[in-house]
């Protein structure tokens, strides 16, 4: 079904809800990858925050957003929040919180 073929708000909302569920599943995968990153960083002695990598990730998503017609600045802002949460997750692990 094409977006323009969605006939009404109820159907549109159902599509949005399904997409939101997929996005949450992807965020859960990202969370698991960050957990693995924390374990690797512990083994090799890296800190949770690596500023060059933060800027690389933000630049990458900015380019991806722009290539899809999205507001690059908005997406970069969202990703900075996501990255800060990931750094906090890694910090907790590196400081002994294994929960």
Spell out the key features of this protein.
99 residues; mainly alpha; Chorismate Mutase Domain, subunit A; 0% strand; elongated; Chorismate_II_sf
Provide structural commentary.
With about 100 residues, the protein is mostly helical. It has a single domain (about 5-95), classed as Chorismate mutase (Chorismate Mutase Domain, subunit A, Up-down Bundle). About 75% of the residues lie in helices and about 0% in strands. The protein is built from three helices and no strands. It has helices spanning about 10-45, 50-65, 70-95. Helix 1 (about 10-45) crosses helix 3 and helix 2 packs antiparallel against helix 3 (about 70-95). It is elongated. The protein starts with 8 loop residues before the first helix and ends in a 5-residue tail after the last helix. The model has no long low-confidence stretch (mean pLDDT about 95).
Q: Quick recap of the structure?
A:
Keywords: Isomerase. This protein is mainly α and 99 residues long.
The N- to C-terminal Cα distance equals: 42 Å
Global mean pLDDT: 96
CATH level-two architecture: Up-down Bundle
Q: How does the major sheet shape up?
A: none
Beta-strand share of residues: under 5%
Task: Give the radius of gyration.
Answer: 17 Å
The tally of beta strands, per DSSP, is 0
Alpha-beta content class: mainly alpha
Q: What is the succession of H and E elements?
A: HHH
Number of helical stretches of at least 4 residues = 3
User: What would you call the shape?
Assistant: elongated
* Portion of residues within helices: over 70%
The CATH superfamily is known as: Chorismate mutase
Kindly report the CATH topology.
Answer: Chorismate Mutase Domain, subunit A
Number of self-contained structural domains: 1
The stretches of 5 or more residues where confidence is low (pLDDT under 50) are: none
The CATH class, by name, is Mainly Alpha
Protein name: chorismate mutase
GO molecular function, one term: chorismate mutase activity
EC number: 5.4.99.5
InterPro entries: Chorismate_II_sf (IPR036263), Chorismate_mutase-related (IPR051331), CM_dom_sf (IPR036979), CM_II_prokaryot (IPR002701)
